[in-house]
Amino acid sequence: MRSMHIPAMILTLASCACLAHQDTVVQIRKDGTMIGLPKQFQPCALNIEFKKSNSETPVESLVIVLSGHRIQFPPAVLRLLKSKNLKAVFASASWYYEERTLPFYMRVEFLEPGFDVSCPDNPGIAMLFNLRTGKLMDMANILVHREEMSWEERQIDLSSICTKEELVSFYEPLKLKRREK
Known about the structure:
It is built from three helices and ten strands.
């Protein structure tokens, strides 16, 4: 009887450890420098220029520097970003796990005007970057359904808005690897 409890306890503790994973918040300063990433991913910065006028496409330029790689995004991507200032841009990252199935990453959310900091979910765009290369691995539209109290992310097909030449310069699609048995 006692031997049955030990495997169950190990399984319970292992599942709790997996559930405890959380991304680390990354602070973006006004000058674009990012605080919170380890030295192995330095230098790192998120340089965003916002248009001075009230525009439907408020982001004028976006350059990310990760692990010394500098990536500039084309106008087709910038048109999707509705954040009007740095207060509507949030970043988090994860690098403290085995990289066999998922590359170390940073997630940056560009929230739409009128977002509510008291709500855990706000509409906008989520971008997932490879911490080692700086390239974009995934981009999704964050949709919030307040009536149903739910949210979803819909992947954006970047090949439908960017040329092949543009894609090569900033995009490296996320490929999840299967775990070995």
